[in-house]
Automatic annotation (TrEMBL):
Signal sequence bounds: none
InterPro entries listed in its UniProt record: AA/rel_permease1, AminoAcid_Transporter
GO CC annotation: apical plasma membrane
Organism annotation: Calidris pygmaea
Name of the protein: Solute carrier family 7 member 13
Membrane topology field: Multi-pass membrane protein
Length: 491
């Protein structure tokens, strides 16, 4: 007897199940998760340990320093609003990479991902090592902790977060929310402590703020250097766009998240700096190895140990956020054909970009083992602002080239022009003022991306044996391409 073939319309429920079973990133990140990721990305160890750069380059002028902290925050907010427009109009994973590719083309996007594939994992490695430093030092007192122990702990933390982010977006978001709340609680202790002391009316503290601008006024180059330091402290405001594809209701939540998180950080940074200046003199702040610890020793000596613990918690939260976003960058690059195809595949059980997480975590691990490699990436700092400038330029290009693109949120058009101008100033200024041969090496490394781009991307050179390796790894990791139907439904 012949078999009867079922028509598509015979089983509408089965069709619905197949559509639901498609492999794609799920929209699991809500408003509060987004706020946690942005704040967690911005607030690391810096505000606890060394918020001295702005004050130092402001020539210990309290008024100028606080003004620069505010201005740096407002510039960061302007950049975040530009990114909010791009994130709502083009809600894809990959952040700047996806926007540069859409606005400026494939080659600039490849230069971005080529550079980021090395600099961002190096940053994660540095964070992991710093966490290990703070986590192990209390057990060794005044003696330094063994390097092997710190590296082993850094690798353990890095891979724990890599596995967590590769298995469950909801769990990664929950961890991010918890650690963001803990670090903000620690900042609240410092901020509220300072406000209370200031309200108590200590004469020397009040005099410091009443004559805030009475000290020597820094010149233009010193103000610019202080501005660099302030902007560095706000770094991470761009992180939300890396997870735009996984945001619930991105048209509403992306702008709302940005307008909540970045102003909140500005307010906390100002309050914390005012608290430091209430308790310590500008000279004491600049000479302190860990400002928050010195503050705690004077204000809350009986529980001063919570500050080193808070620093470790803050670093851990920032690392989790960075691991999450870096995986999405690798995933987006692979989807566009700029990285091996395996990296864009999703786990058939969790619908997470597990291969991308493995890829980015492996590169970060390489930087940890011979940690001297991390110092090589210090001269790539200018590349971050170069890519921000290119991203804001992409926004301007898309406004004119694709005027009918649906934009749920539109930033005031002069803002991206200001951001482009400022970005290129921040790229060129350190190179002009402090020329160094290492900047040339960094620039040549970025140009070196052409050696890979031309044969493998432009001319599409391909080796057949890589398909077999991809197939075996696909079976081993239990992954399949995004948008492809799977037998099991993602949860």
């Amino acid at each position: 007897m012949g078999k009867v073939k079922a028509r598509k319309s015979d089983d509408p429920e089965g069709v619905k199940r197949k559509e639901n079973a498609k492999m794609q990133l799920k929209r699991n990140i809500g408003y509060f998760d987004g706020v946690s990721f942005i704040i967690g990305s911005i607030v690391g160890a810096g505000i606890f340990v060394s918020p001295t750069g702005v004050l130092k380059h402001s020539l210990l002028n309290v008024g100028v320093a606080l003004t620069i902290w505010t201005a740096s925050g407002l510039v960061s907010l302007m950049g975040a609003l530009c990114y909010a427009e791009l994130g709502t109009a083009l809600p894809f994973s990959g952040g700047e990479y996806s926007h540069i590719k859409r606005g400026l083309g494939s080659l600039p996007a490849f230069v971005f991902i080529w550079t980021s594939t090395f600099t961002k994992p190096a940053s994660n490695a540095a964070r992991a090592l710093l966490f290990a430093e703070y986590a192990t030092q209390p057990f060794y007192g005044i003696c330094p902790a063994p390097e092997v122990l710190k590296k082993c702990l850094a690798l353990a933390v890095l891979w724990s977060l890599g596995i967590l982010n590769g298995r469950s977006v909801k769990m990664a978001a929950w961890v991010q929310t918890v650690f963001t709340l803990l670090k903000m609680l620690a900042l609240s202790v410092i901020a509220v402590g300072g406000v209370v002391l200031l309200a108590a009316g200590r004469k020397e503290s009040l005099a410091r703020f009443e004559d805030a601008f009475s000290s020597e006024i820094p010149n233009a180059s010193q103000v610019a250097e202080a501005f660099f330091q302030g902007l560095y402290a706000y770094g991470g405001w761009w992180s939300l766009n890396y997870m735009a594809e996984e945001m619930k209701n991105p048209s509403r939540n992306i702008p709302l998240t940005v307008m909540t998180a970045v102003p909140a950080v500005i307010v906390f940074y100002l309050l914390v700096n005012i608290s430091y200046l209430t308790v310590l003199t500008p000279k004491e702040i600049v000479s302190s190895v860990a400002v928050a610890v010195t503050w705690a020793d004077r204000v809350i000596p009986s529980v001063a140990w919570i500050i080193p613990l808070s620093v470790a918690v803050s670093i851990f939260g920032a690392l989790n956020s960075s691991v999450f976003t870096l995986g999405r960058l690798s995933y987006a690059g692979s989807q566009s054909g700029h990285l091996p195809v395996l990296i864009s595949m999703l786990n058939v059980h969790s619908c997470t970009p597990a291969p991308a997480m493995i890829f980015s975590t492996t590169i970060a691990s390489i930087f940890i083992i011979p940690s001297d490699l991390i110092t090589l990436t210090n001269y790539f700092g200018f590349s971050a602002w170069l890519m921000i400038g290119l991203t804001c330029a992409s926004l301007i290009v898309l406004r004119y080239r694709e005027p009918h693109l649906h934009r749920p949120y539109k930033v005031f058009l002069p803002i991206p022009f200001v951001m482009v101008a400022m970005s290129f100033f921040l790229v060129l200024a350190p190179i002009v003022w402090s020329p160094n041969l290492q900047y040339v090496y960094a620039f040549l490394f970025m140009l070196g991306s052409l050696v890979v781009y031309l044969p493998f991307i432009h001319f599409k050179l391909h080796f057949a044996f890589l398909d077999k390796i991809t197939c075996h790894l696909q079976l081993l990791l239990e992954v399949c391409p995004a948008e492809e139907s799977a037998e099991g439904k993602c949860e």
